[in-house]
Amino acid sequence: MKSIKTGIICIMALLCLIAAPAQAEENKKMEVALELAHAMLDTEALYTAFHYMTIMAVEAGVYNDPETEGYREPLINAYKEAFKETFYDPEILDSMYLLHAEVYTEEFNKKELEGLLHFYKTPLGKKFAKKQQIIMQKGEKKAEDLLSSVFANRFDEKLAPKIEKLQNDGIMPTE
Questions:
Q1: Three-class DSSP category at 108
Q2: Across the chain, what does the average pLDDT equal?
Q3: Residue 65 per-residue DSSP state
């Protein structure tokens, strides 16, 4: 019985020795990923985007609620102040950086993360990080234009025969 316990303890010790370097490498990878998150995330742009989305929803809710009549502006201002205080809370910011770092470690190996970090520390990388929000907004606008014209028309062309088939097969009523 004593030899079985000793054997199990030896196996566990060996597993720990084998796992320690791998864990140390993962820790280094996470450190690089966190540094990358700090280098490439523009907190002001994130704040602006989150603020816009959140406050738009709040304003819609407040203005559509008849019970807020008479104190809508002070209520919205209170929401805005609370949002800003919450967003810039150090614990929230740290969590945001950690969240991004975790995604980076899932998608990139340590060498790739180091390459990205090197890029984001260059003047061009810093400029790219600052411009990401603008690039995304412009891309979304162009995609919106595409969706509202070309995509919508092509979608209708593709959908019409499918609807007609459903109607011909008796699955869907004809109008």
A1: coil
A2: 83
A3: -
Residue 41 in contact with residue 94, Cβ under 8 Å? no
Q: How many domains does the chain have?
A: 2
- Contact between 152 and 68 under an 8 Å Cβ cutoff? The reply is no
Are 132 and 115 in a shared domain?
no
DSSP 88: T
What range defines the domain where residue 83 resides? 2-121
**Is 133:48 a contact under the CB 8 Å cutoff?**
yes
pTM of the predicted protein model? 0.61
Compute the average pLDDT of residues 27-44. Answer: 89
Cβ atoms of 97 and 46 within 8 Å: the answer is no
Asked whether residue 13 falls in the same domain as residue 44, the answer is yes
> 111 and 151: one domain?
no
* Region of residue 42 (left: phi > 0; alpha: psi -120 to 50; beta: else): beta
Residue appearing with tokens 């280098």: 39
Q: Provide CB contacts within 8 A for 63, sequence distance 6+.
A: 72
Give the model confidence (pLDDT) of 52-73 as tens digits: 888 888 888 889 999 888 888 9
Length of the chain: 175
Q: Are residues 90 and 131 in the same domain?
A: no
Cα separation, 166 vs 19, whole angstroms: 58
Q: Rounded CA gap, 30 and 53, in Å?
A: 30
